[in-house]
Amino acid sequence: MPNCGRQIGTLRGTGKNPNSKSYFENNIHTRNLINLKLSFLLPGAGFEFGLSDKFSINSMLKNEFGYISSFGWFINPFIDKQLRYYHNIDERKRNNIRTYKYSGNYFCLVHTYFLNEIKSSVGLEYGWQRTLGKNWYYNLGFGVSRRIDTNSYSILCDYDFGFNF
């Protein structure tokens, strides 16, 4: 008897019902071409644009803020651009771990441009980005950067929590 176009077997070798309408099953390895983001820890907005299965460009306009006793309160807007290489995507897919909306571990080139100071830095970073549920994300990255104007080096610690559209 013909199967009349009905899918038979399992979904990506998971043993789960291929006709299931589970959001997680249907989107476990899906990547949007452009992923819009809102950042809450350093308030801002931006996007992650997929170049391929393993490469993306992440660009965010954020604001750092704080208090310095000799200066007072400050707000320092900056643009953070990253060329990311997600190195463990294939392993995550093999183990049936989600890669939805750029969930994975990455190496990246970082360029940060500080708007108030008209200064910039470049660096390298290693990070982890995960999607929580359908739209929330968190990102944690560590690396080193070099300020272009002063030739000084600094440690990068990039932590972010936000909402994906």
Walk me through what this model shows.
With 165 residues, the protein is mainly beta. The chain has one domain. The protein is 7% helix and 55% strand. The termini are far apart.
Keywords for this entry:
165 residues, mainly beta, eight-stranded antiparallel β-barrel, 8 strands, globular, disordered N terminus
Which range best describes the helical content: under 10%, 10-25%, 25-40%, 40-55%, 55-70% or over 70%? under 10%
The amount of beta strand, in percent, is over 45%
Strand order in the sheet with the most strands: 1-2-3-4-5-6-7-8
Largest sheet: 8 strands, antiparallel, barrel
Q: Based on CA inertia axes, which overall geometry fits?
A: globular
C-alpha Rg (nearest Å): 20 Å
Task: Please report the distance between the alpha carbons of the first and last residues.
Answer: 44 Å
What's the arrangement of secondary structure elements?
Layout lengths: L22 H5 L6 E6 L4 E7 L4 E14 L3 E15 L2 H6 L9 E11 L4 E14 L3 E12 L5 E12 L1
Antiparallel strand pairs: 1-2, 1-8, 2-3, 3-4, 4-5, 5-6, 6-7, 7-8
